[in-house]
Amino acid sequence: MSADDRLQIVTRAEPDRVVLELHGELDLAGAPALTGELGRSQVARAGAVVLDLQNLVFIDSSGLRVILETHEGALERGQYFAVTEGSPQVRRLLSIAGVDGHLHTLPSAEAELEQNL
Amino acid sequence: MATPPNVRLDLPSRPENVLLVRESLTGLAEAAGIAGADLSDVRTAATEAANNVVLHAYPGGEGPMEVEIDIAEGFLSVCVRDHGVGLPREAELQDGEGIGLPVIRALTHRVDFMQTPGGGAEVRMEFATPGVRDLPAGEASEVDLLADLEGGENAVGVSIAPPALARPVLPRLLTVLAARAHFSTDRISDIVLLADALVAQGAGSLSGSELRLSVSVEPRVIGLHLGPLRSGRAGELLSDSEVQGLGPILAKLADAHEVLARDSHDVLTLQLQDRR
Fold first, then answer.
1. Cα separation of B151 and B143, whole Å?
2. Do B102 and A92 touch (CB under 8 A)?
3. Cα(A38)–Cα(B63) distance, integer angstroms
4. Per-residue model confidence (pLDDT) at position B73
5. Does position A3 have pLDDT exceeding 50, yes or no?
6. CB B190 within 8 A of CB B181
7. Do A92 and B40 touch (CB under 8 A)?
8. DSSP bridge partners of B12
9. Which of left, alpha, beta for A106 (phi over 0: left; psi -120 to 50: alpha)?
10. What architecture is domain A7-112?
């Protein structure tokens, strides 16, 4: 966690997926850290990536942009990509931006991947 | 005399400073009884407006970002101003980013995009907060003694009116800045204690009814300039700042202090270092 960007990322490799747990606030200051973590080979080469937003209390459009770019990159690579539901603020921003229906959304990071494919 | 906003921030247009806007809003909203989804919407929209300055106002560089927050007559208003390339900011948002402007429009009761006199852009947002109590207005100080103080390129300016509103706002801002300066948890607690003492003791020493601080942040060092104070009051503030039976807390917590006498007023300078 950097000095005051309020974002913490915990990456967890599981047998069928890599989960990135986001804690805190994903904003313009924190977005580069998430981009960097998503670009690591462990994540980029995984068959499935789940971005766990359940502990993310705030997101802005720069954070949303990272998620959308990751979604598009995953589509191009044939990689499964999903998010979990975040706080009310996170859900509201996704809804206003009109992207909530375009992302695979899991009830939890441990949920079966296939059910939303 | 002009009525100042409840909170004004003068910030370098950097990504990490947008958090200071959100923290100020949270503190002020707390004082006014705004919470939940209403506060969340204000924080989101203000963040987008500030992001826009950071990303677009000063191509290839940075410059001043001014944020004014007011709560009055059933509305919370946030004005985000820059002195950069100017409008069309709206077109930039639509063409360049595509998300920020629709978010601002969706979350505000009213939003206006204007040219800043002398160059730059201004986004004025209003949020309806029916039933929320008005915050009292302050009275601007007649003199600005902090503008020409050496604060460094990281300096953050904070003005709060009336000073009592500093109680929910200032500790939040100083906590963020102390973390940025890589202070230990204990030293962050110290700076919160110092903020409480400034709020409790400083109001009676101010010239006018607006608390003005300039905060400079360097690795492991924070400098605070408080002023204008009434002549002779900076020294009294240092010696009288009693909190929770701990003695003159400002002098104890600061590693160095200085009183500058200027134009028949005082400026109190405090320097705090991380002590690890």
1. 18
2. no
3. 31
4. 85
5. no
6. no
7. yes
8. B64
9. beta
10. 2-Layer Sandwich (3.30)
Contacts of A92 in chain B (CB under 8 A): 37, 40-41, 44
Q: Which residues of B touch A65 (CB under 8 A)?
A: 97, 99
Tens of each residue's pLDDT in chain B, 276 residues: 578 899 999 999 999 999 999 999 999 998 899 999 999 999 999 999 999 999 999 999 999 999 999 998 889 999 999 999 987 655 455 544 578 889 999 999 999 999 988 889 999 999 998 778 777 776 666 666 566 655 677 899 999 998 889 999 999 999 999 999 999 999 999 999 999 888 888 777 887 788 999 999 999 999 999 988 888 888 888 887 666 666 688 888 999 999 988 878 899 999 999 988
Query: Cβ separation of A27 and B43 shorter than 8 Å?
Result: no
Which amino acid makes up residue B186? D
Q: Which residues of A touch B176 (CB under 8 A)?
A: 4
Supply φ then ψ for residue B32, to 5 degrees.
-95, -5
Q: All domains of chain B, ordered by start, with CATH? A: 7-128 (3.30.565.10), 156-273 (3.30.565.10)
Q: Residue B18: its chain A contacts at CB < 8 A?
A: 27-29, 60
pLDDT of residue A1: 45
Determine whether the interchain pair A65/B103 forms a contact, defined as Cβ–Cβ distance below 8 Å.
Answer: no
Contact A25 B19 (CB under 8 A): yes
Structure tokens at A16: 């069928």
Greatest distance between any 2 Cα atoms in chain B: 58
CA distance A113 to chain B (A): 29
Contacts of B37 in chain A (CB under 8 A): 88, 92
- How many beta-carbon pairs below 8 A join chains A and B? 65
